[in-house]
Specification:
mainly alpha, elongated, single chain, Serine Threonine Protein Phosphatase 5, Tetratricopeptide repeat
């Protein structure tokens, strides 16, 4: 209880009465040092206190660092994110990487994987990669004083939480490498027992770095399968794990081998691409239409690497991959159609309103017309030229936007239309609507200045400032959708095949 609550003073009093108390396990096989690793204060000092006192079975005492008991201790340190302490323990007792914990028969590799502190390096942003590099360099022996100053300033520049996250990631990767190194000293049966679940789970969670490190230690682990006879390529496609997918597909010999095997239900990898993605993967993109687009991109990419015979290959339910895709995505397709039509309808109303306003403004020009020749009174004014050009541009762009949105409403909404046709039309419609709003506000500002400004610049500044409000509102509310559409349709995408460095063939 003293170890659990982090009360070192009470622990010292008890140990003074009986120096062997910390060697007595409870009914679960846990020693006090296990509870010190999970103390309620979350203090490293509590663990270090018991770690200094508890030896590895000296003088005939039980050994808390041996076998499943030791792995349980290591697992608790990992789950509480005490990676530096876990590195210290595994460094002194490297055999812990060869066993499984008491509670759920899981190896330390599985525990560190489920802790999710390890992220894929290539998914880090530039500034995150720089922080990770600084953190890694700072722990090495050789670094310049100026580099140490930069590292010291990082918490102030980017925030302490981000730096701590990168520190934990670096320590977790270092611990992962230590555990994987132990695999090189084991036989095939031992490796399968310790690493198989970790590889399968890493493929499901899309943590490619775990798979990469395990494969480096034991190359044949790339061919592990789960209970459904699905290998890591099957799992990556089924769970939409793009990082693992890119890792596998970048290695020709691995990809061609894993592609040839169906799972227990005779599903090829293309059948699994036709299944609906897990909800947490679908929710990574906004809107049902973009979700449908992402699903089509996955199916297209898997189709690209699959043999042509897979297109007509039938699974145990006598269905081809295309049939599976249509059946699984029926509701998503309907939701995408509704989302697209609702968006187009709303934007059509706005575009039609702008067309009406700017068309009327073109007929009833500011200041009226000259009774003698019919020309506008302000026709010789530069600001009137700005009004005329802006009004015409607003009319043309809003009319274009209106026609594009009408084409979306009358589209056939086939599955393949969600890949390029519909997103492209929505991009054009939103962009031209955005331009029409800008030009309409410019025309209105010019009109106010001509009629009421009387060459006073203050009026122009005030009107222009207020004219920015609708433009800013559109940017804040609709521009993110436009960016997502452009990025999803014309961006570099999620597929960037890299491969296993030591298995490139």
């Amino acid at each position: 209880m003293a170890a659990r609550h982090g009360n070192i003073e009470v622990a010292g009093i008890l140990l003074a009465r009986n120096p062997n108390l910390h060697y007595l396990p409870n009914n679960n096989g846990w020693f006090p040092i296990h509870y010190a690793a999970t103390n309620h204060r979350k203090s490293k000092d509590v663990f270090l206190y018991f770690y200094r006192l508890t030896r590895d079975g000296q003088h005939g005492q039980p050994n808390p660092y041996q076998g499943p008991t030791g792995v349980s201790l290591l697992a608790e340190l990992i789950e509480y994110k005490f990676y530096d302490l876990a590195l210290q323990v595994i460094g002194q007792y490297p055999d812990l990487g060869r066993h499984k914990r008491l509670a759920n028969d899981a190896s330390a590799l599985v525990v560190i994987l489920n802790d999710c502190s390890i992220v894929n390096k290539h998914s880090l942003k530039f500034w995150q990669s720089f922080i990770y590099y600084c953190v890694s360099k700072d722990e090495s022996e050789a670094y310049t004083p100026i580099f140490h100053i930069i590292t010291s300033l990082l918490p102030w520049l980017v925030g302490k939480s981000i730096v701590n996250k990168m520190v934990l990631h670096h320590q977790a990767v270092k611990l992962l490498k230590c555990l994987c190194y132990q695999l090189t000293t084991l036989n095939d049966t031992q490796v399968v027992s310790l690493a198989k679940d970790a590889v399968i789970e890493a493929a499901s969670l899309d943590i490619s770095q775990v798979i990469l490190n395990i494969v480096e230690a034991y190359p044949m682990s790339v061919y592990f399968k789960n209970s459904d006879e699905q290998n890591i390529l099957h799992i990556a496609v089924k769970k939409r794990s793009e990082n693992v997918f890119n890792l596998v597909c970048g290695t020709n010999v691995v990809r061609s081998t894993l592609l040839n095997f169906p799972d227990i239900n005779l599903n090829s990898v293309l059948h699994l691409a036709g299944k609906l993605a897990p909800p947490h993967k679908l929710n990574l993109v906004s809107g049902a239409a973009l979700q449908m687009q992402r699903e089509l991109q996955w199916f297209k990419e898997v189709k690209k690497i699959s043999p042509s015979r897979f297109l007509s290959y039938r699974n145990r339910n006598d269905k081809t991959p295309s049939m599976v895709f249509t059946e699984e995505h029926k509701e998503l397709k309907e939701a995408g159609e509704k989302w697209m039509k609702d968006t187009a309808t709303s934007c059509t109303i706005a575009a039609a309103l702008i067309v009406t306003v700017v068309f009327a403004a073109a007929i009833t020009v500011p200041g009226g017309n000259n009774g003698g020749n019919g020309l506008p009174i302000f026709s010789n004014n530069t600001v009137f030229t700005v009004f005329a050009i802006s009004n015409a541009a607003s009319l043309f762009t809003s009319a274009t936007s209106l026609l594009v949105f009408l084409s979306i409403l009358t589209s056939r909404y086939a599955e393949q239309d969600f890949l390029y046709a519909l997103p492209k039309r929505l991009i054009i419609g939103l962009f031209t609507l955005f331009l029409s709003i800008i030009f309409m506000m410019s025309a209105f500002s010019a009109t106010v200045y001509l009629v009421f400004g009387h060459n006073r610049r203050g009026v122009l500044i005030v009107v222009a400032a207020f004219a920015c409000l609708p433009v800013t509102s559109f940017v804040l509310l609709q521009f993110p959708l436009l960016v997502d559409l452009v990025s999803s349709t014309y961006g570099r995408g999620i597929f960037n095949q890299r491969g296993f460095p030591q298995l490139l063939v």
